[in-house]
Specification:
Layout lengths: L9 H13 L2 H7 L4 H15 L4 E2 L6 E2 L1 H33 L1 E6 H6 L1 H8 L8 E6 L1 H9 L5 E6 L6 H4 L4 E13 L1 E3 L2 E2 L9 E6 L4 H16 L3 E7 L2 H9 L5 E4 H9 L4 E2 L7 E9 L6 H11 L6 H6 L1
Parallel strand pairs: 3-4, 3-5, 9-10
Antiparallel strand pairs: 1-2, 5-13, 6-11, 6-12, 6-13, 7-8
Helix pairs in contact: 1-2, 1-3, 1-4, 2-3
Length: 316
């Protein structure tokens, strides 16, 4: 094997620097805590890798050849850069481990998560938090691939998700409700109402939507019997449906956590009585393996939560 493709051992470089500093094979070997014969073999192997003699063994003390003198500062620079790279890599690792990575469905990332984290932060110094927002299906995929430590989503006992099936640890953080809402036709008056006669334009969730699955499980028979509901738009998540509802496009079932303030401001009106409401949970799932201390502390605090109502969340 020639010098161009011979493997290089990092210890050879460190041994060479030690020999250049001491000028003596015995003292350099002692400083490197290895036997002198092994040390000598290392220097010889390095010279074979370079393809030139690096030290003048006939001189006392040992001196560097012209090739060795040219090689030494380059080796010292390489070793210094490697040490710096290791330090930076460890710092990046420590920051990554210490940060919290949370996946949240679109609606909860906007309406619930910021308030909940603000309350949790009174008992925990959160540090860096990375939040990823996606559909329920997308968030579950992030958890299954261990790209995040937590998943915040809506859930219902009759509609188990992939993490429930895999028996991921979970805690219920709050109660929420899917409620039918629409834009007002006049202050306090619903433009559409489930008690009215005539067709009602419905803004629906797509088949892959977690909230859509919950809604179909909670009200499926009633919705199927309700001939007046006419789907005019389908969307993958609640934020888009809310925007369409605000424009007066139709009626949609949206989480109370997402629309409570809009209802209080008069921008939206409840469009159906309690029989058309679907209670849901806001749940936090965690990875089933040991996590960084900050993540474990967040989980501990989450398990101490008393599952407040959404009204309680908004009042904090």
């Amino acid at each position: 094997m020639g010098p161009d493709n011979r493997p290089l051992d990092l210890e050879w470089l460190e041994d060479f620097v030690a020999l250049a500093d001491s000028g003596n094979f015995s003292r350099a070997a002692e400083a490197r805590a290895i036997a002198q014969p092994a040390f000598s073999r290392h220097i010889r192997a390095l010279e074979e890798w370079v393809g030139a003699d690096l030290v003048d063994r006939g001189a006392h003390p040992v001196t560097l050849t012209a090739a060795g003198k040219r090689f030494l500062p380059l080796v010292e620079d390489v070793l210094a850069r490697l040490v710096a790279a290791r330090i930076k890599a460890r710092m990046a690792h420590d920051q990554s481990v210490a940060s919290l990575r949370i996946a949240a469905t679109h609606a909860l990332s906007l309406a619930f998560l910021p308030r909940w984290l603000a309350r949790i932060e009174t008992g925990l110094q959160l540090g860096a938090v990375e939040m990823m927002s996606d559909t329920t299906q997308g968030c579950e995929e992030l958890m299954l691939q261990r790209k995040v430590q937590f998943l915040l989503c809506h859930a219902h006992g009759s509609v188990p998700g992939r993490l429930d099936e895999a028996e991921y640890p979970v805690v219920r953080l709050a109660a929420d409700t899917l409620i039918p809402v629409c834009a007002p036709s006049a202050p306090g008056e619903a433009r559409y109402h489930l008690g009215q006669n005539g067709p009602i334009p419905a803004l629906a969730y797509g088949d892959a939507s977690g909230l859509g699955r919950i809604l179909r499980a909670g009200l499926g028979p009633a919705i199927n019997r309700e001939q007046r509901l006419r789907a005019v738009f389908t969307a993958p998540h609640a934020l888009l449906l809310k925007a369409l509802v605000l424009e007066g496009r139709g009626l949609a079932w949206l989480p109370e956590s997402l629309v409570a303030q809009s209802i209080a401001d008069g921008q939206l009106v409840v469009a159906g009585d309690a029989d058309w409401h679907v209670p849901v949970d806001i749940r936090l799932y965690r990875q089933p393996v040991d996590m960084a201390p900050a993540a474990e502390e967040l989980w501990r605090l989450a398990t101490l939560e008393d599952s407040p109502s959404i009204a309680g969340i908004h009042s904090t």
